[in-house]
Design a protein that fits this description.
The chain has 19 helices and no strands. By secondary structure, the chain is an all-alpha fold.
């Protein structure tokens, strides 16, 4: 294995701007549909929220299963053919997904759209490999934080716009999301440069470009496996929010589509501030391991507040802590990328995405079914915040594992 390259690979800042804008457009599209997808499922189910929660969880599981299967292959493709074509295929595939969902006459068609989205979204990890290509290790956490800010901006504008559009027509946000994805494809085709030169590309080995091969890759790097386990648990806990937010707000606080969109926008603003303004500075001041550990702790605290808040106003108190949870993943990513060579970054990201896809398969079903059981009148109890308490406990376990493997 070659040592990670530590010199700048070219015009880092300009290259980062290109990938930032490409990811931003994708996240805007994704954010727009967040407030309305569960509502559309509820509509298909005739207003039955508990039953819709089970279907929504199943949709999330299938989406993650597609990532689990596709991510190692897509990561290997990006190591062999470069990052740019993989990113372009992703944005074009997402556009197709949104248009299918916009016209879906039944839940089955909506399901097909999520299958396609899971496959094409598996290449989001290619963006992390792109950043590893063009940055030095010392600055990587800060750049990963800025890339995370693209996600935050997407969830500032996306849900707010989606909530407003959804108040007119539940299908309209899907059409707009598809248009944004096509815009991202055009932008990438004409503007996005390639980050991986031919001399640093690796042969495509189909024996390893699969979930089992990715697990072997992680186990073959002892220090990576523990960190990857922490990433797995991070994803498990993280998915409590997207799996439940709309359903939880609707059930416990009677939030409308507009309110859900605005609250999610507030979450996005807070996350953007942390990702863009704090990640790099905190990592530089205290080191990546301590910054990562602090993120885990703040995340656990935020989920505890969400779980216990009896009113929507008190729920909002948890948002700053949830935003500081954003310190976790950029630093964890940076630590992991420093453990492999420059020809293995795509495979690393594909392996991590596949492993986290497993978490994404488990988490939506686990959290939505826990929520459904916690609010089922026949059980004689009403504990809607229970899934968020479970997420907080998972983060504390992940923090212990990651801290042990930090060196």
């Amino acid at each position: 294995m070659s040592a990670p390259h530590e010199e700048p690979r070219g015009p880092t800042r300009a290259a980062f701007v290109f990938i930032f804008v490409t990811v931003l457009l994708d996240m805007l599209a994704l954010g727009i549909i967040v407030p309305v997808l569960p509502k559309l499922i509820i509509e298909f189910e005739g207003g039955d929220t508990a039953n819709a929660a089970l279907y929504y969880g199943a949709f999330g599981t299938v989406w993650a299963a597609m990532q689990f299967l596709a991510a190692p292959f897509i990561g290997a493709l990006s190591d062999r053919f470069g990052r740019r074509p993989v990113i372009l295929m992703s944005t074009l595939g997402l556009a197709l997904d949104y248009f299918i969902m916009a016209t879906a006459p039944t839940l089955r068609w909506l399901f097909l759209g999520r299958v396609l989205s899971g496959i094409t979204s598996a290449s989001f990890a290619t963006g992390y490999a792109y950043i590893a290509d063009v940055t030095t290790k010392e600055k990587r956490a800060g750049y990963y934080g800025m890339l995370g800010a693209a996600f935050g901006v997407g969830f500032v504008l996306g849900p707010a716009v989606g909530g407003i559009l959804g108040s007119f027509d539940l299908r309209l946000p899907f059409w707009v999301a598809g248009g944004l994805s096509l815009l991202g494809t055009a932008y990438g085709f004409f503007i996005l440069p390639e980050s991986l030169p031919p001399e640093r590309r690796a042969p495509l080995d189909l024996r390893n470009a699969n979930p089992l091969g990715s697990l072997g890759f992680l186990r073959g790097h002892r220090a990576l496996f523990g960190l990857a386990t922490a990433a797995f648990l991070y994803r498990m806990a993280h998915d409590a929010m997207p799996s439940l937010f709309v359903l939880y707000g609707d059930y416990r606080y009677a939030w409308s589509e507009r309110t859900v969109g605005l609250v999610l926008a507030g979450v996005g603003v807070a996350s953007m501030v942390v990702q863009a303004g704090l990640v790099g500075r905190v990592a530089k001041m205290f080191g990546e391991p301590r910054a990562m550990l602090a993120g885990f702790g703040f995340g656990a605290l935020g989920f505890a507040v969400f779980a216990l808040a009896p009113t929507g106003s008190l729920f909002l108190i948890g948002i700053p802590f949830s935003a500081l949870f954003g310190l976790t993943y950029p630093n964890l990513q940076s630590i992991m990328t420093g453990r492999v060579g420059e020809t293995e970054q795509g495979r690393l990201q594909g392996s991590i995405a596949s492993l986290m896809g497993v978490a994404g398969i488990i988490a939506p079903v686990m959290f939505t079914q826990t929520f459904a059981a916690a609010i089922e009148p026949a059980r004689g109890w009403n504990l809607p915040g229970l899934p968020f308490l479970i997420a907080a406990a998972i983060l504390l376990v992940a923090a212990g594992i990651a801290w042990r493997e930090r060196a």
